[in-house]
Structure formats: C-alpha cells, structure tokens
Design brief:
With about 200 residues, the protein is of the alpha/beta class. The chain has a single domain, classed as Dihydrofolate Reductase, subunit A (3-Layer(aba) Sandwich). It is built from four helices and eleven strands, in the order E-E-H-E-H-E-E-H-E-H-E-E-E-E-E. Strands 1, 3, 4, 5, 6, 7, 9, 10 and 11 form a nine-stranded mixed β-sheet that branches. The protein has a two-stranded antiparallel ribbon with strand order 2-8. The two termini are about 25 Å apart.
Length: about 200
C-alpha cells in the first residue's frame, strides 16, 4: 500500500539530534515542543484508527520507562538482535522494510492511519533514502549543543520547504532560553532516491 511516511525530529544547527542517549539540550526540556510532537504523532485523520511510531531500539530505551509505550500510538521498535518486542512495545521488526511490511498485514492494515518515524540517525537515513512519499517535520533549534548523533542534511534538490502545515506552529518559539522554529519539508516527486 502506498502511504506517506512522516519523519519528526528536533535538530541543532549542525543536524545533531542527540547526545549520550538524550536530547542535546538535556536536562532542559522543551515542553511545548514535546506537546507538539505528541499532538502531531497522535492526531489521526481517520476515526477509529491509530497512528504508528517507528523507532530504533536506542530511541525506545531513551524514552523514560514511565512513558513507554508512547500512549495512543502503535509502537514499533526496530532491532536486528531482539527476537521479541521489548517490554511495553507493541511490535518489533528487524529492519525498516520489515516494519513497513508489518503495517500491511491483516493484523494492522485496518488499524493504521499515519506513520511517524521518530529516530534515531540510521532510521532517518533509511527514511530519506526510501522511495516512499515523505514529509519531514523538523524543529530547528537555533542553539548549538554538543551531539554524538546526527541526521542527514536535507537537500532542497530533493525536498521542498512548505510555507505552512496544519497543526504546526509558525514563527519563532522560545522555551528555557532556547529559540527554535518548526519547518515541514515534502519530498519532491521527481527527486532521485538516495541522499
């Protein structure tokens, strides 16, 4: 089945997305930005269906245990090593392709609405290299923090920046003395695959 895949991420100016299993600005919390993440990944377009969040194993374990699984979403965790979903996760898959195939099984096909890829680095890279129609919801944090995990650069040859998108705050935001703005990119239909 053809579907739009949504990537959602917060990045530093150097495209850094994490440090030592935490968001780069840890221990500060961008609460409004987290509420936006929750709203976007939970809001469905089809009544009676649920959105899916797909994440790597390290991303899963970076979520505080009290918040796992992410509520009101079908949580799929990718791992080449886990034979079963980690405690609390709904499903596991060995790789990105297997996770997408899982969505079309008889068990999930009638339940799934939107698909959100929420990290980490390798998964964002796979998403951006895939041939699926995709949107990237990127929170651009305007302050540099030290990072050890990074997202690929978003090429404007392959993606177009949308002027606005329903539910996405516009303009400069600020929390905890950290400024950010949220951008939405859509894959150009004529883009070559690969980064």
């Amino acid at each position: 089945m053809s579907r739009t895949l949504n990537g959602i991420v917060a990045v530093c100016p150097d495209m850094g997305i994490g440090r030592k299993g935490h968001l780069p600005w840890h221990p500060k919390k961008l609460r409004k930005e987290l509420k936006y993440f929750q709203k976007m990944t939970m809001t469905t377009t089809v009544q009676g269906r649920e959105n899916v969040v797909i994440m790597g194993r390290k991303t899963w374990f970076s979520i505080p245990e009290s918040n796992r699984p992410l509520p009101d979403r079908i949580n799929i965790v990718l791992s080449r090593n886990l034979r079963y979903p980690p405690a609390g996760a709904h499903y596991s898959a060995s790789d990105f392709g297997s996770a997408l195939h899982l969505l079309d099984t008889s068990e999930l096909a009638g339940k799934v609405d939107q698909v959100w890829i929420i990290g980490g680095s390798c998964l964002y890279k796979e998403l951006m290299e895939s041939s699926h129609h995709q949107r990237l919801f990127v929170t651009r944090v305007l302050q540099q923090f030290h990072c050890d995990m990074f997202m690929p650069t978003i090429s404007l040859d392959k993606y177009q920046l949308l002027p606005e998108f329903p539910g996405v705050p516009q303009g400069m935001q600020e929390e905890e003395g950290i400024q950010y703005q949220i951008e939405v990119y859509e894959r150009r239909s004529n883009a070559n695959h690969g980064i």
